[in-house]
Structures are given as structure tokens and as C-alpha cells.
Amino acid sequence: MRKAAADQTTEGRVNIGFIGLGNMGAPMARNLAAAGHAVTGFDPAGVSVEGVLPVASATEAAAGREVVVTMLPNGAILRAVYAEIIPAAGAGTVLVDCSTVDVDSARAVAAEAAAAGLAAIDAPVSGGTVGAAAGTLTFMAGGPADAFEAIRPLLEVMGSRAVLCGPAGAGQAAKICNNMILGISMLGVCEAFALAGKLGLDAQALYDVVSTSSGACWSVTTYCPVPGVGPKSPSDNDYRPGFAADLMLKDLRLAQDAAASADAATPLGAHAAALYEAFVAGEGRGRDFSAVLPWLAGRRHGDG
Ligand code: NAD
After folding, report:
1. Quick one: which of 129, 290, 128, 292 has its CA closest to 224?
2. Cα angle at 284 between 131 and 204, to 5 degrees?
3. Per DSSP, which regions of the chain are E strands?
4. Is ligand 1 within 6 A of the CB of residue 133?
5. pTM for the whole thing?
6. How far apart are alpha carbons 190 and 225 in whole angstroms?
7. Given this model, what pLDDT does residue 1 score?
8. pLDDT given for residue 303 in this prediction
9. Which of 84, 150, 227, 256 allows an S-S link to 1, with CB 3.0 to 4.6 Å?
10. Whether residue 81 has its Cβ less than 6 Å from ligand 1
């Protein structure tokens, strides 16, 4: 990362381009600006973000910046944006992609950046829009260690934890492996509570047993899908997201793409993707991913 860029006026102030100012990107860019960094932003939707200087193109957002952060919907858009910004970025610029995309795209854009002499880090996040607004995201990163250390202070503005998981693509790999566990475990927890209901077993009683037994997991203890049971979670808010079922489906599909690409057996991951696909095609669209519980509770043995 270049020191003393032309418009860097204060010690530690970094000249940042931010591309993709959606539900996640806007609060992340706002937090960087609020921390005193010079942030220039681009989004084709023409979003305006407090403290962020808007520009008319990704190229303009990237030119002359020390760090360029992207927060985009998918790998195809990421590849298109990187094709524009790599030629525009000056030597020493660090490119940081915080989107959730397929591992192959993350590796491809990092290789293109490296061929142009630029360092690239994939740094997807967990923590959702609440974490983005509060600056408490967790970043899981892949890329060169020196570039990661250079941008660590910026990740610590946008989040509370940043872990370097390995070379390019390792952050995306960690993200989809984690979320595949989450999707599978939430389905298992919802199945158990739906079964308990049909067996006449009280949900609070099951929670009291499972939360301190071998079935305990985050989907029970932190994000219990039963309204009124466990700590506050989206189930207590009529299953408004939270973490939308559509986004869980996106991540489960990415895990399946990666499994196919790496020839890895993920039978439960595949089944979880199929179940979320059916859920999102019906009553699950726009709801939290834990709303699988009422959906399953309304189904019968043999429904699959
Ligand atoms: P979003 O749809 O709200 O924002 C994406 C933004 O990218 C939009 O504002 C869109 O206009 C912009 N965009 C599209 N094409 C562009 C282009 N060519 N150049 C520049 N900008 C472009 O999505 P989001 O919820 O902010 O999610 C962004 C990423 O973060 C996704 O990859 C998502 O999977 C991931 N993520 C989201 C959450 C969440 O809870 N929302 C949590 C973790 C990770």
C-alpha cells in the first residue's frame, strides 16, 4: 500500500475506493469515512453515503487509491468490475473483495491482479447488515500475508475480527464451509423441534436439554428457531431476516459449485441446498433462514 498518497493529509488516513454501496457496502464505507479515511464510492444505483465522495465509474473509484474495496452481488459481477479496475489501479494498490463469491472467481481475479503487480485479498464477511452497521463484522481472508497486515487496520474499522485463512480463495472457502455447516445444522435443529412438536414434547423443555447436551450448536443456543425460546432471534420477530433464506441458498449453491469443482463429497450439503431451494421457491422468500421450522412443521413424514 503506497504511503503518503497525494490527498493523504493526516497520518494513518488511507485513500480508499469503495465499489458496491448496497445493504452491506454502504454502512461499511460509512464506517471507514467516519474513522477519518478518505473514501470515494461508486455504485451504478447512484447511492449516496454519508462521508463518501461519489464518483461516476468503478475506474474513477479505483484510480489513485491505496486500497480498493468491493462489495458486490456475485462472481460474474466481480470479474467484470476487476477487469475495469485492475488497469486503472496504480502500482502498490491493494484490492480487497468483501463480497461472497465462488472460490474459482476469487482465485481468478487474484491471479489477474497479481499478473498486473497488484495484491488482492478475498475477505468475505459474516455478521450481516447489523454487523456492517455496527462495525462488528468478522472477516475471513485469503491472500498474501503482507497485504493482509497492511489492510488489517481497515478491517478492524469495519469489523471486530479478521482471520487470514491462507492464499487467494481461502477466505471464500472458509465462508462457504462455515455456512454449509450452518445450513445443515439449522435444518437438523428445525427437524428436531418439528418432530418434538408432533411427539407432544415441549419446545422449552427440549431447548433446556439440548442447549447443554451433545446436540448443542449455534443454531440452538444463539439463534433458536422457536419463538420465545432461547436468546432473542429472528424467530421472535416473525422470522424477519436476520439472515435471509435466499442468502443461505446462495451460499449453499456456492458450496456445491466448489464441491463439484474440487470433486468433494458433500451429500448433506447437497440435500440442504435442495431443501432451501424448495423453501425459497415457496413461503421462504424474504424470510429468515430459521423460518424453515414452521415450514417443516407443516410437512409430513415422507414429504422428503
Ligand atoms: P446488495 O444487493 O444490497 O448490494 C450490492 C450492490 O452492488 C448494489 O448496490 C448494486 O447496485 C451494486 N452493484 C451491482 N453491480 C455493480 C457493478 N457492476 N459495479 C458496482 N456496483 C455494482 O447486496 P448486499 O446485501 O450488500 O451483499 C453484498 C455482498 O455481501 C454479497 O456478495 C452478499 O452475499 C454478501 N453478504 C451479504 C450479507 C447480508 O446479510 N446482506 C451478509 C454476508 C455477506
Report:
1. 290
2. 75
3. 15-19, 38-42, 53-54, 67-70, 94-97, 119-122, 125-126, 137-142, 159-166
4. no
5. 0.93
6. 7
7. 53
8. 84
9. 150
10. yes
The amino acid that residue 52 corresponds to is V
Q: In which residue are the cell numbers 420465545 written?
A: 228
Question: The C-alpha cell of 10 is what?
Answer: 493526516
Q: Whose CA is closest to atom 39 on ligand 1? A: 128
Cβ of 215 closer than 6 Å to ligand 1, yes or no, is: no
Hey, is 204 helix, strand or coil? Answer: helix
Is position 3 annotated as part of the catalytic site? no
Q: Could you give the CA distance from residue 181 to residue 168 in angstroms, rounded to a whole number?
A: 22
Ranges of the chain with pLDDT below 50: 2-9
Say how far apart CA 264 and CA 296 lie, in whole Å.
28
For residue 194, what is the DSSP state?
H
Whose C-alpha lies nearest to ligand 1, atom 25?
23
Tell me, what DSSP letter sits at residue 37?
-
Strands 67-70 and 15-19 come out as: parallel
**Exposed, middle or buried, 66 (CB in 10 Å: 0-12/13-18/19+)?**
buried
The pLDDT of residue 10 is 58
Amino acid at 115: A
Which pLDDT belongs to residue 59? 98
The whole-number pLDDT of residue 99 equals: 98
Looking at residue 8, what is its pLDDT? 42
Ligand 1 center–CA 127 separation, angstroms: 14
